[in-house]
Amino acid sequence: MSLTKPNDSALIAPSRINPARALSSWSSFGLLIVLVVVFVILGFTAPNFLTLSNLLNIVQQAAFFGIVALAMTLVIVAGEIDISVGSLAALSSSLLGIFVVNVGLPMWLACIVVLVVALAIGSFSGWVRAQFGVPTFIVTLALYLALRGGAQWITNAFPIPIDSGQFFYWGTGKISGVVPVPAVYLVVVFVIIAVVAQRTVFGRSIYAVGGNARAAELSGINVRRIRIAVMAISALTAAVTGLLESAQLSSGTSTIANGMEFQAISAAIIGGAALSGGRGTVVGTLIGVIFLAVLLNGMVLLGVNPYAQQVFQGAIVLIAVLVNVLRSRRSSTVV
Questions:
Q1: How many domains does the chain have?
Q2: Given a cut of 80, is residue 324 above it in pLDDT?
Q3: pTM above 0.85, yes or no
């Protein structure tokens, strides 16, 4: 019995795909065209948009929420959602400040402890989902409030200055004086998650669970472990982003990553991930990340009202969802 029929295109080995046909049917190809058009328009209309410093700034800002967005793709493909990543990034930053400044841990050890705490929190949310059947939206909504509150509680909502030499390079440094270091992390995370999603049994299991959890379970897939794992991965990337932003700001602070969860989810949806689960690609999400970063940067340079920027973002996400729904209906009709 084939459990991944609705998503066979996501699981077929690349060697068996006709490149021209794959390109023409690629769900993110339209977004790529839109990205190019928007880029050209902003190049002519937004002051200083095409300067090297601004383009590098776009890449650096994209890296911070892009790392989380790539992991969010796995979560959404599995049929789940995680709206606690921004709060967890803030808690991770705050814990880093506490561990380094107040407790006196070495920077490397403090970072490891923070990552372990994040993994535990992510695994807990996945366990609650698997054990009690509570939707991850509800679980992570509770964490969204609790983790941000916890971060503000332990820091009294004040930044904790961190003085640790080379650590700051990982958030603000540039390789050869040009390429932002966070961008390298984004590429590394992209490669890892792309390989996991397309080349491993675990990745195929994620698509199967998102497509039909009951059928996946009957075929021998441990749905419980898959759900726990994707939530743990999402939490880990949130903690990494929190550490990177701490390095950028030279402090542990509870006010970072406001709205990051919505940027990550938006990028995945714009890139073609279906909220119903079972469909989505990290390539599409990466294009969605770049598209959002370019659009936000362009609106800032054009002097668009910040509140109007939120309206545009919301409209774009809504359009992306509608496109996904229409494409799903068309696919169901064809089948």
A1: 1
A2: no
A3: yes
